[in-house]
Design goal:
The protein is α+β, with helices and mostly antiparallel strands. It is about 50% helix and about 25% strand. The strands form 3 sheets. A 6-stranded antiparallel β-sheet has the order 9-10-8-13-12-11, sandwiched between helices.
Length: about 350
């Protein structure tokens, strides 16, 4: 029996060490696999969002292009340009607005009936003033009241200014007073080729983010560079749109615990490139959001609940470690039985 003990004890120690080593190695491998899987899922969601931006931009350009050569649009611009377009209260601009609303109403109503959503069609004057937002009854809000004037958008709508300056189509993401929007802006030109303004169709960006949300599993939060939204801070609810470092939250993740993990440092790193941070049951990744010119204009944050993935990985690790240990114990047990009979 002493001989058996001398043989068995070292073997048992070896088995225990082998089991621990197997568990550590397998656990490390599964941790790497989990990290790659989570990052792949997050990057896949990012690709989905970028694809939606591209598709939405092309659709906006296509829809805006339908209107730019219509006789009614040409006539409305003739009316507006016959007055002082630098005067926000120009009666000729107001007359052009009313003409556009009346003449294009059948087309816009048909579009709404067929597609189920209201086309956000916007015409601009060549000097950067708005001519007509045709999805509203009034142009813009001033001192809490909706008024029908040609408000100046030149200071915060570079898409419009770029098209009016270059005469080329612009499409993509742009921050504005209402947050981010996907825009397609096309020049309005006469049959002779003279540019007289621009037209755009815009699509809200937030609903696209909702398409990649997965309640309880995947969360999206969006922060804009503070300098890009400074002009509209006073228009916003500071509690709903708080500042965090150099950023303003535009879209809130639908989980307070996720927002608590989003720090100014995370956003700063996300501004420079893809950055992910692992927490107990959540992986939070931040990456830059670029506007139509490719300029970094915000940071998108994706958070994924990894509790289920971690639980699965831990269970698989334990099962594999037990299996490997069992594969060693079984022949060792047979060997010890054989030695006992021989002794």
């Amino acid at each position: 029996m002493k001989v058996l003990r001398k043989l068995a004890i070292p073997q048992i120690i070896i088995v225990i060490c082998l089991g621990l080593i197997s568990f550590i190695v397998i656990n490390s491998s599964f941790a790497d696999m989990r990290k790659h899987y989570v990052n792949d899922v997050i990057e896949n969601r990012l690709q989905m969002i970028n694809k939606e931006i591209e598709v939405g931009s092309r659709k906006a350009v296509s829809e805006a292009s339908v209107f730019v050569r219509l006789p009614a649009v040409m006539e409305a611009y003739d009316i507006a340009l016959s007055g002082d377009i630098d005067d926000p209260y120009s009666p000729q601009s107001q007359k052009a607005r009313e003409f556009l609303r009346r003449e294009l109403a059948p087309m816009l109503d048909s579009h709404s009936e067929i597609t189920g959503y209201k086309l956000q069609l916007h015409f601009h004057l060549p000097n950067g003033l708005s001519l007509a937002r045709l999805w509203r009854e009034k142009q813009t809000m001033i001192d809490g009241k909706w008024v029908d004037i040609s408000d100046d958008i030149s200071s915060f709508r570079p898409t419009v200014m770029d098209v009016n300056r270059t005469g080329k189509i612009v499409m993509g993401l742009e921050p504005g007073s209402g947050g981010f929007a996907i825009r397609g802006v096309v020049p309005v030109t006469t049959p002779e080729g003279r540019q007289i303004g621009s037209a755009e169709v815009l699509q809200e960006f937030n609903p696209i983010l909702e398409t990649v949300n997965d309640t309880g599993k995947f969360f999206i939060s969006l922060y804009a560079n503070k300098e890009h939204l400074d002009f509209s801070i006073e228009l916003r609810d500071r509690e709903k749109y708080p500042a965090k470092g150099d950023f303003i939250r535009v879209v809130e993740a639908k989980d307070s615990s996720v927002e608590a993990l989003i720090t100014a440092e995370l956003l700063k790193k996300g501004r420079e490139g893809f950055f992910a941070a692992d927490h107990a049951s959540m992986t939070v990744a931040a990456f830059p959001l670029n506007d139509y010119r490719g300029r970094q204009t915000g940071v998108m944050v994706c958070a994924m609940n990894t509790q289920a993935v971690s639980r699965l990985a831990n269970t698989a690790t334990l099962i594999l470690a037990i299996m490997i240990t069992g594969m060693v114990i079984a022949p060792l047990f047979v060997l010890l039985l054989r030695l006992r009979r021989l002794v």
